[in-house]
Amino acid sequence: MSLLEVKNLRVEFPTRRGTLVALDDVSFAIAPGEVLGVVGESGAGKSMTGAAIIGLLEPPGRIAGGQILLEGRRIDNLPYEQMRRIRGREIGAIFQDPLTTLNPLYTVGRQLVETMTTHLPIGPGEARERAIGWLEQVGIPAARERIDSYPHEFSGGMRQRVVIALALCAEPKLIVADEPTTALDVSIQAQVIALLKRLAREKGTAMMLVTHDMGVIAETADRVAVMYAGRIAEIGPVREVVKHANHPYSQGLMASIPPLDRRVERLQQIEGAMPRLSAIPKGCAYNPRCPHAFDRCQTERPDLMPAGRTEAACWLHAEGSAR
Amino acid sequence: MTPMLETQDVARHFDVSRPLIQRLLAREGRRTLRAVDGVSFAIPKGSTLSLVGESGCGKSTVARLVVGLYPPTRGRVLFDGQDLAAARADRRQRSRMQMIFQDPYASLNPRWRVADIIAEPIRAFGLIEGRAAQMERVGELLTQVGLSPLDGQKYPHEFSGGQRQRISIARALSSNPEFLVCDEPTSALDVSVQAQILNLMKELQARLGLTYLFISHNLAVVRQVSDRIGVMYLGRLVELAPAETLFTTPRHPYTRALMEAIPDLEMTGRARTPVGGEVPSPISPPSGCAFHPRCPLANARCKAEAPRMLPAGEAQVACHAVEEGRAAA
Ligand SMILES: Nc1ncnc2c1ncn2[C@@H]1O[C@H](COP(=O)(O)OP(=O)(O)OP(=O)(O)O)[C@@H](O)[C@H]1O
Ligand SMILES: Nc1ncnc2c1ncn2[C@@H]1O[C@H](COP(=O)(O)OP(=O)(O)OP(=O)(O)O)[C@@H](O)[C@H]1O
Ligand code: SF4
Ligand code: SF4
Ligand SMILES: [Mg+2]
Ligand SMILES: [Mg+2]
Predict the structure, then answer these.
(1) pLDDT by residue (tens digit) across A61-117?
(2) Per-domain residue ranges of chain B
(3) Which residues of B fall within a CB distance of 8 Å from A191?
(4) B chain contacts of residue A264, beta-carbon cutoff 8 Å
(5) CATH class for domain B1-96+177-226?
């Protein structure tokens, strides 16, 4: 059975100018021990998907349709208190912005100790020892000496590692990680990824990993979902999506990865910009930028359909397609 | 020609002592953290210098020093040949430099509309008169970073992480600075928008001769934008070289280790080698060469004597093994 199942999730933002649809019919599942990578255009709805799962959508945003199931149990309609207990104990969250997670008034050690004593049957002494252990595991040098520091005394990357330790220390079954490694240098990044993979392998922890770093995706994820304008454009095994993408947006995205082995005059990019939520085009949302767009793309919205060894929301892959 | 920016043996130390009572109880003295400890470089006008190195090695602290957000504990910073403190006191000089902060959330005022955030430097320096003309420029900047002029009416919290990062880029560009410090400017962007921003930065440099100090953990990105690259380790520069030289012939053992740790996109199964050993504490750094506990080439001299930056080919390297010819190229 899937650990996490997201079914036809729809998130809306009522505004004075009308209702914006931030997520539209998003469905996927994650098995125990599996890492699902989530990539896509900035503003596509990746963080929003994570926020909906952990029950922290920022009002006036709200779930307007669909279901979220954790071990077969619905969690999208739970009262706040119940959800708060699940968060932390069963779902660990690593947010995109480390400063919002860390309390600037408390030392790093105190925040870790409180999280553990709240969710695990251990006392403060034991929790403090474990806190030092977690800080070491995420690569904070001289952890024992620095555990009583305040967040502002740490560099950007060190704060991010504290946030990772906070999400892991209560040993949740599911980790929702939003850009957990972007502020980290390649070496610490390798260490953190090794840690996350070990948790997945040994403890069966499942993970939704949102990141722009394709290197991290290639190394960590089992499957990848590519998002565009509030929908999943393509989903499939990591190797297939990165190397043989079937959706034109995924293809454009992969082509934009800067090469490491040489300098180029001008980097490849996808021309144009993603539409604003208030002006999503009819038919396929990618059609104004798509080099393969044809008639059907302007009028009918494609759902995910089998395409090569992945699934892609693109009419090019429809049976009896015009092409 | 006078470089746009020059640092001469610049240092920044922080007092990280515990409160007095705790210090007395634990019988410990004051503790100093040498975040940056004697860094010298120059950035010629119209060029890009990038800083790379482990998290916590002092890159953001250098960035804050060169735009005057921290006064140096030691050494000097010169902006276009003038002492930085004097330059900062002059509004016209100040308008020539801008910074894109590592943390886009903290640098945007949550209560202001995005258009006003971006227009703020334009107004502060009196660059464009009249609200209509200001808003036209704001719309142009928003479009340049892949957003819409209509987005100016919204507040920062209504944007995604990468969209906010683009807002802070638009803000930094709004006063037409000549010198721009970019601390992880594209870390929150997907690769396509990142390519747009990097192409824009390169185009502005070619057209208007901008000078950049660029900080990033993404070495592929660094390779695309840099003329020269400085590698930092524990508050010091250990290698400074033309960009292509650094990638083709890295000399310092730490630079080499850093290159080995780059993630592998080709999925060839190449094991990625994290830099071995413990990351040292910046409060009590190792003696001699700070890299010695992790360095495969370390010997007795390395433990005792800190290496100085010396020329090595087109590069400058601070390493005894390189100086002695023990580090095979
Ligand atoms: N409070 C809000 N009110 C209105 N729109 C919002 C709000 N928060 C986010 N949005 C919009 O919802 C969309 C999805 O945002 P989300 O943060 O999920 O993007 P993302 O995929 O995580 O992007 P990034 O990679 O830049 O972090 C964006 O277009 C954003 O502008
Ligand atoms: N205000 C401060 N007080 C005390 N220590 C500080 C302060 N600012 C930075 N430091 C310390 O100085 C060192 C260098 O920090 P800096 O932010 O410059 O690192 P960085 O190279 O930018 O790292 P990252 O890649 O993680 O952003 C770190 O050990 C950090 O903990
Ligand atoms: S459905 Fe049409 S417009 Fe959309 S990605 Fe496929 S070909 Fe392009
Ligand atoms: S000086 Fe010695 S310890 Fe330092 S990098 Fe060179 S060989 Fe290694
Ligand atoms: Mg996001
Ligand atoms: Mg930094």
Answers:
(1) 999 999 999 999 999 999 989 998 898 889 999 887 766 788 989 999 999 999 999
(2) 1-96+177-226, 112-168, 251-329
(3) 274
(4) 224
(5) alpha beta
